[in-house]
Task: structure prediction
Amino acid sequence: MNQDIDKSDQQLNNIFYNIKELVIHSRNKVYSTVNTEMLHLYWNIGKIIMQIQNFDERANYGEALLDKLSQKLTNEFGKGFSSRNLRTIGNFIWYIQFGRHCLPN
Result:
């Protein structure tokens, strides 16, 4: 009888570890997919922010527009869309597209 219990425990442990590996693998895939989608989202938001900021004499207009946009996005989606975050996203995209070419070697 004890051998049957030991064998049953071993089978249960094997099943548990197989399922555990499946769960871990699936979670990792979900995290990766979410990260990729968030990167695409921020990239696209950054391109729009760059157009708003325009990095020229219209900077004050762009800042006011970002403040209003931030309020609307925060009301709709919650945290994460502060004016500061929107500016950072826009600046990051600008740096990726143009700024890294301006750095000394």
Residues 30 and 36 are 10 Å apart (CA to CA). Residues 2-53 form the longest helix (52 residues). The mean pLDDT is 84.
